[in-house]
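[Help] Beginner question about ligand-bound structures

Sorry if this is basic. My supervisor gave me a protein sequence and a SMILES string for zinc ion and asked me to "get the holo structure". I don't really know what that means in practice or what format the answer should be in. Inputs are pasted below exactly as I got them.
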Amino acid sequence: MFALALVSKGVYAFYHDMKSATLFLAGSLLIPCHSALAWSGPGHELIAAEAFRELSPGLKTKVTDILMAHPDYARWTNSFQPGGLDLPTFIFMRSATWPDEIRRTTGPNSIYDHPNWHYVDWALRPPNFPLGTEPSPTNNVIYGIEQLEKTLSDSNAVPELKAASLSWLIHLVGDVHQPLHCSSLFNDTYPEGDRGGNEFYVKPADRVVRLHSIWDGLLGTRIHPQTQFNDAVRIDAQYSRSSLPELTKDTTPKSWSLESRQLAIDKGYLGGKLNGSTSSETAPPLPEGYTTTAKEVAEKQAALAGYRLADEIRQYVK
Ligand SMILES: [Zn+2]
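Answer (accepted):
No worries, everyone starts somewhere. Holo just means with the ligand present. The predicted complex, written as structure tokens, is below.
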């Protein structure tokens, strides 16, 4: 099921709600570069599950009430299957993927679309990787999270906007922890940048994939909320709050994005030594052990994202 790693969230919505593999496969061929990809749907749901488990009963009720005003709430409840997770947990997790589902779509929900909020393309320029200036400082994931913090703490915000903003916050705290959402490689091969690894082809085993897609799929590629919830429990047990000094060291969306940028340098591009190709035909093999290490990074990032999302909700959801 590796192909699921390539799924766009719009297609994921069809797949999740309609169980239509045909639509999924048709849609996966239409995905544009860079902008359509993020943690896979399962990754976003996993991070949401971690955060929801952290909330007090009172805050769980509060966020559940807020999400009832979401424009897609009825569709989500219709897709709920009793017998596993409870409805509030399911809805909170389900809302995590919505910003990708409405991305570059038309229709009534397009007023809530912010296609550039999903990432920040910090430049990676080997061999020294100077930081440079923040790309698009009024239209990137850092800016997006800051706008959502304002809306969610505004007690006068209209209910639908507040619900959409909560869904967005759940999503973006996930995105900013995906290393390849916070980086773009610049070198002689990629003078305009590799767009977060979307133009960097590699070959794990006998498949050819974009580097970005490998990272998107590290937290799971099959939609099954109970599985994502179980993974959240497992990852939280592995990474307690006290085991993560990053939680007290890096406390702003910008610092989270810079953590991700450094991971992209160290583990994503192996300090600039990872070989890739602009063409799928000439994609080089990935080094042995690459994806094993990357998965460990992704799970730790998921733990950080879950704790930080819970903290954001405690601080900003009024
Ligand atoms: Zn996204």
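A couple of things worth pointing out: The two ends are 41 Å apart (CA to CA). Residues 17 and 244 are 36 Å apart (CA to CA). Feel free to follow up in the thread.
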